[in-house]
Structures are given as C-alpha cells and as structure tokens.
Amino acid sequence: MSDPTTDPATEAFVAHRNLLFTVAYEMLGSAADAEDILQEAWLRWVNVDPARVRDVRAYLVRITTRQSLNRLRTMARRKETYVGSWLPEPMLTAPDVAEDVELAESVSMALMLVLETLSPTERAVFVLREAFGVDYDEIAAAVDKSPAAVRQIAHRARRHVDARRPRKTVSQNETRAALESFRRAIESGDLQGVLDVLAPDIVFMADGGGVKQAALHPVLGAEKAARYLIGGTRKRGTRLTTEPAVVNGSPALVVRLDGEIDGVMAVRVENSRISGLYYVRNPAKLTHVASETRLTLR
Fold first, then answer.
1. What is the rounded distance in angstroms from the CA atom of residue 8 to the CA atom of residue 51?
2. 163, exposed or middle or buried, with CB in 10 Å at 0-12, 13-18, 19+?
3. Rounded CA gap, 214 and 206, in Å?
4. Strand bridging mode 250-257 / 260-270
5. Which pLDDT tens digits describe the chain residue by residue (298 residues)?
6. Rounded CA gap, 34 and 172, in Å?
7. Which one of 16, 103, 259, 291 has the fewest CB atoms closer than 10 angstroms to its CB?
8. Terminal alpha carbon distance of the chain
9. The pTM is what?
10. Would you list the DSSP string of 93-137?
11. Are 53 and 93 a contacting pair, CB within 8 Å?
C-alpha cells in the first residue's frame, strides 16, 4: 500500500484544497456544506488516474463546481422554510487575507449576500470568473454551457452584482476604527455612542435560525437598529463582551454573553460609518468559529 503522503492523487488534491474550499464556500455561503463538497470531490477524484488528466486544477474545480451547483439547489429549498433572515456562515480568516483587498472583498459578508440574489448558474460563473479568473472555456465545462453562453451569463451577473455592491472600497484601518467605536459603545450600553457610528440608512440583519432570538426581518435605520441592539442586550440581563477577529476577510467581532459565544458581527463600512451590520447567532453556523476561537485561546 502506498504512503498517502507520496501518493500523486493525494498530493494533487491537497495542493488545491484551499482553492476548492473557497470555490465551494463562495458558492454556498456555508463552511459546513463546503467541507461536504470537498469530501464528495475527493471521493470522485480518487477514482481518476491523475496521469490522464491534462489540467488537474481545472478538473478539480469542475468537480467541485458541479457538486456545489447540486447542493445549491438543495439549499434553495431549505432556505424557503428558514426562520427569519438567512446570513452566510461566518468564517474566520487569517489577518493577511484582509490585506488582500480583492480576496477579502470576494468573501465579505456584504458580497456573499449579493451573491444570494443570483441564480445558481450565475453565482457559479461569477465566482469562478471574478474571484478566481477561470477562463470561459473551463467555466463552460463546469456548468455545462457553451463559452458564448457563459460570457453572457458572466456579463449579466457582473452587472447585477455591481449594482448592489458598495460603491467604494474602504481601507481595513477605516473599518477597524468604526468597529472599535462600535465595540466600546455596545459593551458599555451607550445608545448615543452606537448611534454616532451607525450610518443613518444602516441595514441591520440578524440570523438566529429559529433557535436564538433575532429580528425576523432586516431592521432599517440607525435609530431602530441602535435601540434593538442596546435593548436586546439589556433585556437578556447578561454581560456582553466582544473580541476583535477577522471574519470573511474583514475586521469583525466575536460576541460573548457571560463568557459564552453568542454570535459573530460582521460589518460594511462606508464614509467611516457602519452601513451594514450582520449578526449571526444561529448556533449551527458558529461551530467553526467556536472551535477556531478555542484553539486561539489555548
């Protein structure tokens, strides 16, 4: 039996694993589902002779994309019965990802929410083309479309996303500064401090998945969002603390109530104020964050 560390199939898969995971995650918005996709891709890959594959990267991306498309259609049915707002599963990322503006933006919570408005095929084409620069012929093979059709889909998806994404990319320092002001205010229960850092037209979304209390619909406007945040914390009568983290390539907060992880807050910042606030409280979406945080604290 060959040593798995020297097996060509294993080496090839491991070499591309991070890429494949990111493709699946950006298409699905779920780290848990992305891990499942990688397992399915691996099971298909081990039955292939790598020596007969002309472009291993393209082949593995094709397998991953097709499996992700199948999973996307299944997830669409799950989301129809989801309680309240659905947010992507937050993913802790290395600090250096935040310095790579293009990569950080491609996995940001704000962009992931925009991708939710695309059809499965549009999302696959957009992710492969815009985030990873895959050529049209390769994408066509992955989504079973002609290269000409893929070009049209890419153009349509890009126009759709550009119309909904933030107009201006802000620096990580600007985001961190706004988040630090918000952090101090939310921990101290300072309503005016929270109001001062929120944009007047902020959109606040919370995802409790029907398991934890959360607003069932987006909360619009600084006054309503601030009162919801401060009032909800006081009502629970618990001690709220936060820890800075890098989530989906951007500065974020891990929120704890009485020392236990309650959720993750990701933000979108424009003109030095928070214009989008996304609070994931669904415990099923916090397992990766909880395990990574425990490892960090050891």
1. 9
2. exposed
3. 6
4. antiparallel
5. 445 456 888 998 999 999 999 999 999 999 899 999 999 999 999 988 888 889 999 999 999 999 999 999 888 888 888 999 999 999 888 665 444 445 556 678 888 999 999 999 999 999 999 888 999 999 999 999 999 999 999 999 999 999 987 666 788 889 999 999 999 999 999 999 999 999 999 999 999 999 998 999 999 999 999 999 988 666 566 788 999 999 988 899 999 998 899 999 999 999 999 999 999 999 999 988 877 665 443 3
6. 27
7. 259
8. 37
9. 0.86
10. --HHHHHSHHHHHHT-HHHHHHHTTS-HHHHHHHIIIIIT---HH
11. no
Give 245's strand partners.
252
Cβ proximity of 278 and 114 under 8 Å: no
Contact between 286 and 263 (Cβ < 8 Å): yes
How wide is the angle at C-alpha 159 spanned by C-alphas 158 and 162, nearest 5°?
A: 80
